[in-house]
Amino acid sequence: MARAALRWGVRDLAREAQVTAATITRIEAGKPAHASTLKAIQEAFETAGVEFIPENGGGPGVRLAKKTIR
């Protein structure tokens, strides 16, 4: 969901998280991953403006953060 919101492909996310595209593909297929890899992916998304939403009755999710005007 986060990749789609950013309009990123697998290679875009891999580049931003500094992992391989194969790693992203494996994780998206439900394969296990190291905690450090998942953290790198989460940090890449958060840097790009994605907010992770906790379980609130409808399940966990993501959204794009509001842009602040400076």
TrEMBL record:
Membrane-spanning residues: none
Name of this chain's protein: Helix-turn-helix domain-containing protein
Organism: Shinella sedimenti
Sequence ranges assigned to domain HTH cro/C1-type in this UniProt record: 2-52
Keywords attached to this entry: Plasmid
Top-rank taxon, per record: Bacteria
CDD domains in the record: HTH_XRE
